[in-house]
């Protein structure tokens, strides 16, 4: 499987979502975070767009969002986030296991995702992800294997204050299993707001006075 080609196609799709201005419906606004949705073209479910402002530069924010060692310390939606195969410095395959949601009515899922970081001019960074087959990690009987259609984080500096970033997140997750779409539609917007709030808290916790924090990878 040509993972690099899949990664490059996925990041282009995510970039396309940023330029798609039609058909979005605002489904939740909370704590200056806006969640919009529209019907996905990939499956019988929704594509969600989440927008918020993060008090960190775009470069450091994008590094923070994909660093596997730190992710589960702040992302309360995940039990496990591990790199299981590295293709190059910007492309890797991750295995994630989610927590249960909706008072336990949505059981944990596991995902195998191809993650790719692409840096654009103007300090905009996109972290794209898409589920792929990876023979070394077949589905197990312990979890329902979910599927992420093209998803991503888009981190771009605020023009008026580059120390702050606009984070736009696109999510279109096929939970699979025997879930009614209404349960997913009721719980997803709040979960997405919580993700942004958790990321803000995580960044705050990692800004230590001694200068020890998350590492900034300067590769291009």
Automatic annotation (TrEMBL):
Residues 20-208 form the START domain. The keyword Transmembrane helix does not apply. GO terms for molecular function: lipid binding. Keywords: Lipid transport, Lipid-binding, Transport. Gene3D superfamilies: 3.30.530.20. One of its GO terms (biological process) is lipid transport. It comes from the Eukaryota. SMART domains: START. InterPro entries: StARD5/6 (IPR043556), START-like_dom_sf (IPR023393), START_lipid-bd_dom (IPR002913). Pfam families: START. The keyword Signal does not apply. May be involved in the intracellular transport of sterols or other lipids. May bind cholesterol or other sterols. PANTHER family: PROTEIN CBG07384, STAR-RELATED LIPID TRANSFER PROTEIN 6. This is StAR related lipid transfer domain containing 6. It comes from Rhinopithecus roxellana (Golden snub-nosed monkey). The gene is STARD6.
